From TrEMBL:
UniProt source species: Reinekea blandensis MED297
Protein name, as recorded: Integrase
Upper classification of the organism: Bacteria, Pseudomonadati, Pseudomonadota, Gammaproteobacteria, Oceanospirillales
Keyword Cell cycle on entry: yes
Gene Ontology BP term (one): chromosome segregation
Keyword Iron annotated: no
SUPFAM superfamilies listed in its UniProt record: DNA breaking-rejoining enzymes (SSF56349)
InterPro entries assigned to the protein according to its UniProt record, in alphabetical order: CB, DNA_brk_join_enz, Integrase-like_cat_sf, Integrase_catalytic, Integrase_recombinase_N, Tyrosine_recombinase_XerCD
GO cellular component: cytoplasm
């Protein structure tokens, strides 16, 4: 495959027709690029589109699965000349090695749309690449830019390959498109995946960092109340309700509104959300979270607390009607808060706290809220509010044993004499 013929296959979810009703149409350009027969390639594409379409209720899952399936099909069709029914265990292992060190022309330096609108048509974005090299937030702020030469596949990226492809081939088996799951035939995935002893450390803000985020917002509230009152409410929801960023943004499956806050017959307030796996859950609302809600509603000119059936968006746009539908916009708002707090910490001489905050992501607020609450709330209560599938996940946020282990090691001597 030449350096100028990389072609994306699957468009965004809102451009996806139902492939169970209409066979997926591969572009003529892609058909010309592969040695796989046109019939086999079209059938592979349709089955793959059907697999992706089954995840249309979860845009984030759809996007991550599309990334993995698209890379795999690109490799099968254009590198190896394989149709899906020809793939075996050795091919999966070869694909993993390929992903660990893909050709430089397969690697981009920024995430871009696969297709663009042009003259009423969807056309290929020539800047799209199957892999993307990235730099850390701290490096980007220091002026560093991404370089394809520095691309590295993470352990989580490796795990995604095995997980997604195994699920994918199980689907293809059920649809009688292939006879076996080649991923399941790999008996020693450990040669690719590192095993870690004990639970991973949960990434979260320190108490000083979280306080400084709140202080930083308070310090600039009067400069632009419309902007910073909304920012304050957003970070309060992420921390106080353990929300994921996707649970704040509007989507086809979920339009969060003020009426998702509701009071039961015992005068207890709850917030209903729809999270990962399209699962609905009720989250207990603390007194402090009610204070934050009242404050934001007062700023918006609404009643103190939501009324049943109220359709006001949870996070209204500053301009225009409706709620924020872009997780990227919410991420940008929170990042501005982190940046303000980082500057304040550095001005106070807290250089280590500032440097650590520079690496934080929005999801750390959810982690921080859970970690703080699990110190004094029953873990089963935190588990249900957080939407964890099991208490074992919640247990990862309890670091008492880890602290005790470090305390017992602190007085170890290198030279006991």
């Amino acid at each position: 495959m030449s350096k100028h013929t990389l072609q994306p296959i699957f468009d965004n979810l809102n451009e996806f027709e139902n492939p169970f009703r209409y066979p997926f149409q591969v572009s003529d350009d892609i058909l010309k690029l592969s040695d796989v027969s046109k019939t086999a390639l079209q059938q592979d594409a349709t089955r793959s589109a059907q697999f992706l379409y089954t995840y249309r209720g979860s845009p984030d899952t759809f996007a991550s699965y599309r990334r993995e399936i698209e890379r795999f099909l690109q490799w099968c069709w254009f590198v190896e000349g394989l149709s899906l029914d020809q793939v075996r265990r050795q091919h999966i292992e070869a694909f993993v090695h390929f992903c660990q060190s893909p050709p430089k022309h397969w690697i981009g330096t920024k995430s871009v749309q696969r297709f663009l609108n042009s003259g009423g048509q969807r056309v290929v974005n020539p800047q799209w690449r199957p892999f993307v090299a990235k730099v850390t937030k701290r490096a980007r702020k220091a002026g560093e830019t991404a370089d394809a030469k520095n691309y590295e596949l993470s352990q989580s990226g490796l795990q995604a390959i095995f997980s997604v492809l195994s699920t994918y081939f199980n689907f293809l088996i059920q649809e009688d498109h292939v006879a076996l799951n080649p991923v399941a035939q790999i008996r020693q995935k450990g040669k690719f995946l590192r095993k870690r002893q004990g639970a991973d450390t949960i990434r979260r803000l320190s108490e000083a960092q979280w306080h400084e985020v709140l202080n930083a917002i308070q310090a600039v509230l009067d400069e632009d109340p419309a902007k910073w009152e909304r920012a304050l409410f957003i970070v309060s929801c992420l921390f106080g309700l353990y929300l994921r960023i996707s649970e704040l943004a509007e989507s086809e499956r979920w339009q969060p509104s003020m009426s998702d806050f509701w009071k039961d017959s015992h005068d207890n307030w709850w917030f209903t959300t729809v999270g990962k796996g399209n699962k609905e859950r009720d989250i207990s609302v603390s007194d402090d979270m009610l204070v934050a809600l009242r404050r934001f509603r007062q700023f918006l000119g609404l009643s103190s607390l939501p009324l049943p059936g109220e359709h006001t968006p949870l996070i209204p746009k500053v301009r225009g009607k409706g709620g924020i539908a872009s997780t990227r916009q919410i991420r940008f708002i929170v990042q501005e808060c982190f940046d303000l707090a980082t500057d304040r910490l550095r001005a106070q001489g807290e250089t280590e706290e500032a440097a650590a905050l520079e690496t934080a992501t929005v999801h750390w607020l959810r982690h921080t809220g859970i970690s703080e609450d699990v110190k004094f709330r029953p873990r089963e209560h935190v588990r249900d509010d957080a939407g964890h599938g099991s208490s074992a996940i919640t247990d990862r946020y309890i670091d008492v044993e880890r602290q005790a282990r470090h305390a017992s090691a602190r007085s170890k001597k290198i030279n006991p004499a």
